[in-house]
Design a protein that fits this description.
55% of the residues lie in helices and 7% in strands. The longest helix has 43 residues. β17 and β18 form a beta hairpin. α1 packs antiparallel against α2. The protein is of the alpha+beta class.
């Protein structure tokens, strides 16, 4: 058997040997012609010179023939090799044993040998063919070089080149067709003539005929029959001339190709030129970026975080003026401060995004980078302050309980504020005012009627602002006068007289030094903000030195009048306008150079106040490594200099029990007393004569700028190291008690069956992060933010250090307080642990996801605890809880919260430690509940689907479409996975039947359905007089299951095209109920499209569908609660915008869970309100991530702490106010942008507080009603019309209640003073000046008009009475029942009929400023009350249009909303 195999194996070997011999012979044949070709030139060189062309031509011909033979032989070789490869052969190789081979290596070893050999041979043949082609080309090139050496080019043929249009075609034709053959023929003929010497002997007869000789040559060398005849040097040049000449012949291929080549060449040159320009521009830009890199604060390695630069670019790309949204999408912002860039990486990274930028855009980017570099310096400074305050919190929290007393903290701030100098108090915020104290802590008369400007958050702000505007007006007048001077000499004299430098000169030098950074306009804007702040500081300093006190009264009007001119005035530059103030009283103040004239001294003056002015702490460091900006530009502040900011409210601690909510009012009422008692309980204030030198030195720091610069801040150098507290302070410092308790439960072996459920509960948590406000204590974030708000951004870090040392000495806790704090921590941990265990137990018990448990089933299992020994004690728990009403069949259903409350009451009745007893009960119930693995898997899948429905509502941007989508997904996926069915579903909601009331008061409208049934079901209406069981479900409030619809006579089919024989299936109708168990809709599920004959819903499916309906109801009301809150906010913003003028924009944000499961929460920009009160509502609200807000982190600071933030960004000041849930956490944010103003006037500041208080109260009421915590309270008649109409007037109704409560606190004496305003011009005293008499007359008219308007509301019959024109008789209506009638008046009642036009004439003639100037609380109350009543009455008449919420349609990207103006008070 082996022999045939060996013989067969030897044949291929022999054949391979023959092939090798043939290849060697072919190789020698190839080598021989090459050698012969090399020997030919040497032999031909011995011939005569006359035969050189012929011999050379013959040589070239022979070499070309040899080359053709070589190629033919190679093709034969390839064919032979192909035939050899096609034969079959087998080669046996010894086997190999290989251990520990990777799978990839093993697969490569197991490849079939024939395939490997085939690929090898094909590759070898391809390489051989390629090499032969290369050799042939090289040989041709060598032959051409040899021919050029033997036949030198004859440039005489170039004379044929002529581009004349007349003979161009003819010449090209002759050169192409005739002359290449004719010219050599004539040359041959002339050579024969010369050879025969016929040219000398013309008379000798001969047989030689030149014509015949030429004809014979042309016939022998016909180019159509003879190829490669060889060319002389003349012919070669002629050929080149011909080819070049053909290019110029029009309408030929060569001409078109040449034009194309020229066009391509031209474009290539242009492209190269453009590329060169781009490279130059890119290099210039890179150089500019490298120079700009030095302005940033770097880490010790000279690097900057990548996320900072990404935020800079993101903010620049988001600017709508540049239209760079596409670039913004390419940014993948890093999640941490880890990745960093050096100078070259910084340059290359930014250059990769700006390659296509125009020069103007790049210049704006450079300016933006400069501003952001200064902003980043402020971020570093703020981060240092936060770390300082965080360390202070940890130092004061000696018991390590995680929170500090709010009242003691505020008391220490008040003490520190009182002991500070007037100069420092101008920078600090008053801790006795909002937002440090809550609205509930302010008495109603003080909140609504107090008009004392001294109670502003900034001390004497209104008066100082008045003086600033006056100085700016004087500066503007002097500036205008200097411009009007005609001659330069007069101008020079005027400059010497005023001793000031023109702002134009400053701007000119700045433009020369920084041409690519900041434009003149932006410099003026920076000067505007810097100059205002310097004026503010200087005026406060003057008041400190002179001891002046702020005045009240008529200054408010002048503030408003002069503010109108401030914008044009501030552009002129006014940093020196305050230098004419009073003389200094301290040596340190004298160094500031109030009357200095030299540039160097002014530069030193700016350095000396660097620690006090806005952002001066950062500027003093910034100037050390810039190009001596202070010396060159003494009158100019830093480009990124910003205005003061940073106010915050104290907030609710997350760990406080929810039961504290009920005592919120008592907490706030007792706050002031406890603060006063805590103020000096543990703080020892030294008298003036007993203070040490160090304490006196620290106090003088608040007054002396030079000393402030010499203390630690002058030695402090800002640097970047590690992570910023700005980026991760929420994650690092907020402790989640639930996660800690969940980890403890994971480590416990008692609750192993609940571990998976607890993990799901933690992963499905709604919004992670954020602190709740409770009015009692601060956690670390809230404490840090409160101190940052108190200090502000203007104060230097030395003030923060002094405050820190003051707190360390003053904050002392008693032993009882420490024990109480530890007990509270233990209680919170126990509460969270209980909630986790009971929620997990509920979900394990409710394995079908129905959302409820049967009370009887729970009692039946509970009573078996300890073999029934605790049965009687457990029954006592039912006496302390109110269960929901029994369903039909006496079934009492308990939700998750009711189940937890019931179990905790049961445990409280048992003996022993409650925590231990509860864990024992939970362990007993857990072990008693037996669930199969299939049920556990089904429960887990259903919980995930139910979570997606609620998550869709939370991340929908206030839209129901995602909720409908996820609801139908849950139904269909469960039917396919756990029921093997194909279902259809639709949702119908109840509506009031206004069009056809005869068919029923209400109707069911189908608002959503599955895709297959959409054409038949969507937007269809079901009336009560139609067939169907849906209204039965609505009336009874329980689900109805029809197993076979073909046998049921009361089922309505929406699709009439289905035959009755095909109407087979099951139908299930489920009620949709709110928190009060009221039905608001029906969810229907059927199996009519299921091809199976038996498709009845089984019990576990029905229970799950009930859970879907329950979760959908929760999600539905969640979305509508946000809609109602937006409606209230729009109403409040419209009211505020009509009475304030300094608010630029108002942006509303909502908090949503992050896109990923464990990610941080995000913010949705829901709507933006501009200066005119027009609100733009987004259909797809843009999402804002924390990582994109390094420079605008005030939004997340507000949501993290649930406190008010005062921030300054890019020269614009923001007041950021949280909208809180009932638990105290923030659900949204209102961002009030007040432009470049440091703060609102006190009048506008108070109006802002009123608006926020009413909006927050409306939020509490909306959320409480939807969750079922409070019952709906209908105060006005219009509230019964509907939920939408009620949300539209809720703001005005709550404000009306506030005013009514304030009026009830008034006494009769408050009204008596108003009735004395009875002014008659005829009896005007002569001693009163004109202005005073006009003021008295205006006040009298104001009092009469307001009172008459209110009287006409209550007594509309007065209009038709004869007493209407007599004030003495009209004021008799202001009696002891006057306030009672006001409080009982319902402006929306149907029986109320008043003359709105007449009342409007009385109250609309008086502006908000006029009422504020009058300064009477009664007039303030009645003015707002009259306007609100007038607004409500106008809205009640057009409820269909004015109160409808501004919801979006499917086709809108945004919509505008605005409240009617006619009913709201005016600004002026």
């Amino acid at each position: 058997m082996s022999e045939p195999a060996s013989q067969e194996g030897s044949k291929p070997v022999q054949e391979n040997g023959k092939e090798e011999k043939e290849r060697k012979q072919e190789a020698t044949e190839v080598k021989v012609p090459t050698e012969s070709s090399q020997s030919v030139p040497s032999s031909s060189a011995l011939d005569n010179s006359s035969n050189v062309p012929e011999t050379a031509t013959d040589e070239i011909k022979s070499q070309e023939i040899h080359l053709e033979e070589q190629t033919k032989a190679s093709t034969y070789l390839i064919k032979d090799s192909d035939t050899n490869v096609s034969k079959n052969f087998v080669v046996r190789k010894p086997a190999k044993v290989i251990f520990n081979l990777d799978p990839d290596v093993l697969n490569s070893k197991l490849e079939q040998p024939w395939k490997k050999n085939f690929y090898k041979r094909v590759e070898a043949r391809a390489q051989a063919m390629q090499q032969k082609i290369i050799n042939k080309d090289n040989l041709k090139k060598e032959l051409e070089k040899k021919a050029e050496k033997k036949f030198p080019r004859n440039n005489l043929a170039k004379e044929w080149f002529n581009t004349e249009n007349m003979t161009l075609k003819t010449r090209a034709y002759l050169l192409d067709k005739l002359l290449p053959t004719l010219v050599p023929g004539v040359e041959k003929m002339l050579m024969q003539v010369e050879k025969k010497k016929l040219w000398a002997e013309a008379d000798i007869t001969t047989k030689f005929d030149p014509i015949n000789h030429l004809g014979e040559y042309l016939m022998r060398n016909n180019p159509y029959y003879i190829k490669d005849s060889g060319m002389s040097g003349y012919q070669r040049v002629m050929r080149d001339v011909t080819e070049e000449l053909k290019i110029h012949v029009p309408n030929t291929i060569g001409n078109r190709v040449s034009k194309m080549k020229e066009s391509i060449k031209q474009k290539r040159e242009e492209r190269e030129c453009i590329n060169e320009v781009k490279i130059k521009v890119a290099n210039i830009r890179k150089q500019a970026l490298q120079e700009q890199f030095s302005e940033w604060i770097l880490d010790p390695k000279g690097m900057i975080p990548l996320v900072v630069i990404q935020n800079v670019l993101h903010e620049f790309f988001q600017n709508p003026d540049f239209q760079l949204e596409a670039c913004c999408k390419q940014l993948d912002i890093a999640d941490s401060m880890g990745p960093r860039l050096n100078k070259m990486e910084f340059t290359e990274y930014i250059s990769s995004y700006i390659a296509d930028f125009k020069s103007e855009t790049f210049e704006k980017l450079l300016k933006h980078l400069c501003h952001c570099a200064d902003e980043f310096r402020e971020i570093i400074k703020t981060d240092m302050r936060r770390q300082m305050f965080a360390e202070l919190f940890l130092c004061c929290d000696r018991g390590k309980v995680g929170f500090l007393c709010r009242q003691r903290t505020l008391a220490l701030l008040e003490t520190f504020y009182d002991q500070s100098s007037k100069m420092l108090r101008s920078l600090l915020r008053n801790p006795r005012q909002w937002p440090f104290i809550e609205f509930e802590e302010i008495d109603l008369p003080e909140f609504w009627g107090d008009m004392d400007n001294q109670k502003h958050i900034y001390e004497d702000f209104d008066k100082v602002l008045l003086e600033i505007n006056a100085l700016l007006s004087e500066k503007h007048a002097s500036k205008t006068q200097s411009k009007l001077l005609e001659t330069p000499e007069d101008q020079h004299k005027h400059d010497e007289y005023t001793e000031s430098t023109p702002p134009e000169q400053q701007r000119g030098t700045t433009a020369e030094q920084e041409p690519n950074r900041i434009s003149t306009k932006e410099q003026e804007q920076d000067k505007e903000s810097t100059g205002k702040k310097e004026l503010y500081r200087e005026i406060v300093t003057k008041q400190t030195h002179t001891g002046s006190t702020p005045e009240q009264g008529s200054s408010r009007e002048l503030i408003t009048e002069q503010r109108r001119h401030s914008d044009s005035v501030t552009e002129q530059g006014y940093s020196d306008s305050v230098t004419e103030q009073g003389p200094p009283q301290r040596v340190s103040s004298s160094k500031q150079g109030v009357h200095m004239e030299s540039t160097a001294e002014q530069g030193r003056h700016r350095e000396s106040i660097a620690a006090q002015g806005p952002h001066r702490g950062s500027i003093s460091e910034q100037e050390s490594h810039r190009e001596s900006v202070t010396e060159q530009e003494p009158h100019k502040g830093s480009r990124a200099e910003q205005e003061p900011s940073g106010e915050i409210i104290p907030e609710k601690q997350q760990d406080i029990d929810s039961t504290l909510q009920s005592g919120r009012g008592s907490i706030f009422r007792e706050s002031r007393k406890s603060r006063e008692s805590a103020s000096f309980e543990h703080t020892e204030i030294l008298p003036q004569e007993k203070r040490t030198q160090e304490q006196i030195y620290e106090e003088e720091l608040f007054v002396s700028p030079e000393l402030q610069e010499e203390v630690p801040i002058s030695r402090r150098k800002y640097h970047l190291s590690g992570e910023l507290l700005t980026c991760n302070w929420n994650m690092d410092y907020i402790k989640c008690e639930e996660e800690e308790q969940a980890n403890l439960l994971y480590s416990s072996s008692r609750f192993t069956d609940l571990h998976a459920i607890i993990r799901n509960i933690q992963s499905y948590k709604e919004v992670k992060g954020g602190s709740a406000f409770n009015g009692v204590s601060f956690n670390l974030l809230q404490f840090v933010q409160l101190l940052e708000t108190f200090v502000g951004e203007d104060a230097p870090l030395s003030v923060s250090e002094t405050l820190t040392s003051f707190f360390k000495r003053g904050y002392v806790e008693t032993k009882e307080e420490k024990i109480s704090g530890l007990e509270q921590i233990r209680h919170n941990a126990s509460r969270v642990r209980r909630e986790l265990l009971l929620e997990a137990l509920f979900q394990k018990w409710d394995s079908d996801g129905s959302g409820f448990l049967d009370l009887n089933e729970v009692d039946e299992l509970l009573y078996t605890y300890k073999e029934g020994m605790e049965k009687e004690s457990m029954k006592k728990a039912k006496l302390h809880i109110q269960f929901p009403k029994p369903h039909p069949g006496q079934e009492v259903r308990m939700s998750s919260k009711q189940f937890q409350k019931y179990i905790q009451l049961v445990v409280s009745e048992l003996r022993g430690n409650e925590d231990h007893v509860l864990e024992s009960v939970v362990e007993f119930l857990m072990n008693s509940l037996e669930r199969s693995p299939t049920e556990n898997l089904r429960n887990c899948a259903r919980r995930k689907w139910l979570y997606r429905i609620q998550h869709a509502a939370e991340t929908s941007g206030v839209s129901l479409e995602p909720v409908y989508t996820e609801t139908f997904k849950a139904l269909t996926q469960d039917a396919e996975s756990h029921g093997n069915k194909k279902i259809s579903a639709h949702i119908s909601l109840l509506e009031e039947n206004r069009l056809l009331p005869d068919r029923g008061n209400v109707l069911l409208r189908n608002v959503a359905s599955t895709l297959d049934d959409a054409p038949f079901v969507l937007n269809r209406v079901l009336y009560r007089d139609m067939k169907g069981i849906s209204f039965t479900v609505v009336d009874e409030g329980k689900p109805i299951h029809v197993p076979q619809v073909q046998h049921h006579g009361n089922v309505f089919f929406w699709n009439n095209s289905i035959n009755k024989s095909d109407q087979n299936g099951s139908f299930l109708a489920l009620p949709l109920q709110d928190a009060y168990m009221r039905v608001f809709g029906v969810m229907a599920v059927d199996t009519l499209r299921d091809p199976q004959k038996i498709n009845i819903f089984v019990p576990h499916e029905i229970r799950f569908y009930q859970g879907v309906a329950n979760v959908f109801s929760t999600a539905y009301h969640y979305v509508h609660s946000r809609e109602h809150i937006l409606h209230v906010v729009i109403t409040g913003i419209a009211w505020l915008c009509e009475i304030t003028s300094d608010i630029t924009t108002i942006t509303t944000y909502f908090i949503e869970p992050g896109p990923k499961q464990d990610s941080d929460y995000v913010l949705r920009n829901m709507m933006v309100t501009r200066h005119l009160g027009l609100t733009k509502i987004h259909r797809n609200p843009p999402i804002i991530f924390r990582k994109t807000c390094i420079f605008r982190d005030f939004l997340f600071k507000c949501t993290d702490t649930s406190e008010v933030i005062l921030a300054s960004v890019c020269g614009e000041n923001h007041i950021v106010i949280p909208l809180r849930e009932r638990t105290g956490k923030a659900l949204g944010v209102l961002d009030f942008n007040i432009g470049r103003n440091k703060m609102l006037l006190y009048r506008e500041f108070k109006d802002l507080q009123k608006m926020i208080k009413v909006v927050q109260a409306a939020c509490y009421e909306i959320l409480g009603e939807i969750s079922g915590e409070i019952k709906k309270n209908y105060i006005l008649e219009i509230e019964n019309v509907g939920e939408v109409q009620r949300a539209g007037i809720l703001f005005f109704r709550i404000m009306l209640q506030e005013l009514q409560e304030s009026l009830q606190l008034l006494t009769s004496l408050d009204f008596v003073s108003l009735l004395l305003y009875d002014y008659h011009p005829s009896v005007e005293p002569t001693y009163l000046p004109d202005t005073k008499s006009q003021e008295v007359e205006a006040n009298t008219k104001l009092v009469h008009d307001i009172l008459l308007a209110v009287i006409l509301f209550i007594h509309p019959e007065l209009e038709l009475s004869s007493d209407f024109g007599n004030w003495d008789k009209c004021k008799m209506y202001v009696n002891r029942h006057f306030v009672t009638n006001i409080c009982a008046f319902d402006p929306t009642a149907r029986h109320v009929e008043v003359n709105l036009k007449l009342i409007g004439e009385y109250i609309r003639d008086h502006s908000r400023i006029e009422v504020w100037k009058f300064g009477n609380s009664v007039i303030e109350y009645l003015y707002h009350w009259a306007h609100i009543c007038l607004t409500l009455m106008e809205l009640s008449k057009k409820t269909s249009s004015a109160i409808a919420p501004p919801l979006l349609s499917k086709t809108d990207s945004y919509v505008y909303a605005k409240m009617p103006k006619g009913s709201l008070p005016g600004k002026c």
